[in-house]
TrEMBL record:
Compartments where located: Membrane
Keyword Transport part of the UniProt annotation: yes
Regions that span the bilayer: 56-73, 85-105, 117-136, 160-191, 238-260, 281-298, 304-321, 362-380, 400-419, 431-450, 470-488
Keywords: Antiport, Ion transport, Membrane, Sodium, Sodium transport, Transmembrane, Transmembrane helix, Transport
A single GO cellular-component term on record: membrane
NCBIfam families xrefs: NhaD_1
Domain Citrate transporter-like: 85-438
Stated family: Belongs to the NhaD Na(+)/H(+) (TC 2.A.62) antiporter family.
Name of the protein in question: Sodium:proton antiporter
GO molecular function, one term: antiporter activity
BP GO annotations: sodium ion transport
Membrane topology: Multi-pass membrane protein
InterPro entries named in the record: Cit_transptr-like_dom (IPR004680), NhaD-like (IPR045016)
Length: 493
């Protein structure tokens, strides 16, 4: 948890003689010198404050939504999304800490902040290793070789529609959906430059497939990773979502298939071989995944610990590659003689791969996770949890609603909110919310990183309106996957 559990918080409230609730108009008086706010008896503070009706709570919510709006408008404002979110996290915790210091409870806010920071640190280290491996494979032309292999097979548009969709589904189970979508998007753009309908339908198919493929694997999506790291679903249980995920991808694809052209694009003979070291790094990446699973299941350590161990595999191998290729590297005098700038030598340096990480995205998640931790500590997520999950008969409806909301709000943010609420639900319901939060982003083009990435990559072919046109069949796949989950995994409810 990012703070005390809901049951602990409710118990503390029952012990408390009063609940601290203040209107916004009392802000200045309270901040300057009003009596201290604390849930305390004769022996000092005993629990967190309820600031959901306090001016600081209202201001924290306003700051969060303004920052989130600026983050979502990044394409328009050209303001990196991490900037407003990191500011929001700092401002929210600053407000919370100020109230707690003024109430004579300075330690509690600091402890809650450190708990939120620890959660983010585990996620950061996990993604850092994953992205570093992907950057290494990209530099060694692993993905480019795959793209050229597909271009040279001479498949028809209909065959390529299914092939790119299936590959997107499979690759996104171990890579993030944005990388997967951009890779497959490059393929369909190269093949369908003379057939806009093929590109449009294939891009929609890739977005749905990439989101569905990441929903049954702990490594495939931020939502499954968060669920796994929190221990809500064991590693092997995620794979019970494989069939529902396939249904989510295959049903809309089958509906779009008859509208594809029957022609074949011109075959391309170009071949790009994987550079030296590419194949061993693929093996090392798979070994890193096994290590992370082993650390979590056998040693009961966070998966991030196993991923960091896997990073050392890559670092040692990069050292080996550097020594192996060093004699082939031109010296500076030769580079100058050839008119090449010094430093252009093809050197495999692992620290350069780390420096190329998507730091804007990583800092964005810092802002989101720390902001969500602050709102949870204030008490808002408890109120939302009571509204959504207090009635066990409404749990399924709540989890379906979470999935639909993920089409408008980043699914990682949605899942963080659910985990911060920490509802007492069955394993089947945890699997359900994992599925819905993962695939719900496919309902709109802007609902996932995969869709947003393709909107920028394939301008003129794939658009918000084109995706929305096929929204009904995507929604059909969404509910069909939920039905498949209840049918196949009913023993978990």
């Amino acid at each position: 948890m990012l703070s005390l559990s809901l049951s602990q918080r409710r118990h503390l409230r029952e012990l408390s003689p009063t609940r601290i609730r203040f209107p916004v108009l009392a802000a200045c008086a309270l901040f300057i010198g009003a009596p201290k706010l604390c849930l305390a008896g004769d022996h000092g503070p005993v629990g967190p404050l309820d600031l959901t009706r306090h001016w600081a709570g209202y201001l924290a919510v306003l700051i969060f939504f303004l920052a989130y709006f600026l983050a979502m408008a990044e394409e328009v404002t050209e303001l990196r999304k991490s900037k407003p979110m990191v500011f929001a996290a700092s401002a929210i915790w600053g407000l919370v800490a100020a109230v707690y210091v003024g109430s004579g409870m300075p330690e509690q806010a600091g402890e809650a902040f450190r708990a939120s920071l620890l959660t983010y640190a585990e996620l950061l280290l996990f993604i850092l290793v994953s992205m570093t491996y992907l950057n290494a494979m990209e530099d060694l032309d692993v993905f480019e070789a795959l793209r050229c292999w597909l271009l040279g097979k001479g498949y028809s548009y209909r065959q390529l529609f299914w092939l790119t969709g299936i590959l997107a589904f499979m690759i996104s189970s171990v890579c993030n959906n944005l990388t997967t979508a951009l890779l497959m998007g490059a393929v369909v753009m190269a093949l369908g430059k003379d057939c806009p309908r093929f590109v449009t339908l294939s891009c929609i198919n890739i977005v749905v497939a990439a989101n569905a493929g990441g929903s049954f694997s702990p490594f495939g999506d931020i939502t499954t990773l968060l669920i796994w790291q929190k221990g809500k679903v064991p590693f092997v249980d995620f794979f019970h979502l494989l069939i529902p995920s396939i249904v989510n991808f295959a049903l809309p694809a089958a509906c779009m298939f008859p509208f594809l052209p029957r022609q074949r694009p011109a075959a391309v003979d170009k071949r790009i071989p994987i550079k030296t070291g590419g194949r061993p790094i693929i093996v090392l990446f798979l070994l890193t995944i096994v290590t992370a699973v082993g650390f979590e299941n056998l040693l009961h350590l966070p998966p991030a610990a196993g991923m960091m161990a896997g990073l050392t595999y890559l670092k040692f191998y990069s050292f080996y590659l550097q020594k192996k290729t060093a004699p082939q590297t031109p010296d500076p005098d030769e580079l100058v003689a050839q008119g090449e700038p010094i430093g252009e030598a093809d050197e495999f340096d692992i620290f350069k791969k780390v420096s190329r990480l998507e730091w804007d995205t990583l800092l964005f998640f810092y802002g989101v996770m720390l902001s969500m931790g602050g709102l949870s500590f204030i008490g808002y997520l408890e109120d939302i949890s009571e509204f959504l999950y207090a009635d066990p008969d409404r749990t399924t409806f709540a989890n379906i609603l979470v999935g639909i909301a993920s089409a408008f709000i980043d699914n990682g943010t949605i899942m963080l909110a659910v985990l911060s609420m920490d509802p007492h639900i069955s394993q089947g319901q945890w699997l359900l919310v994992t599925l819905t939060a993962g695939v719900g982003g496919s309902l709109l083009a802007i609902g996932s990183a995969a869709g947003v990435g393709l909107l920028g990559q394939t301008k003129g072919y794939y658009s918000f309106g084109a995706h929305l046109k096929w929204g009904p069949v995507i929604l059909l796949g969404y509910f069909a996957s939920i039905g498949a989950h209840f049918l196949i995994n009913r023993s978990y409810f």
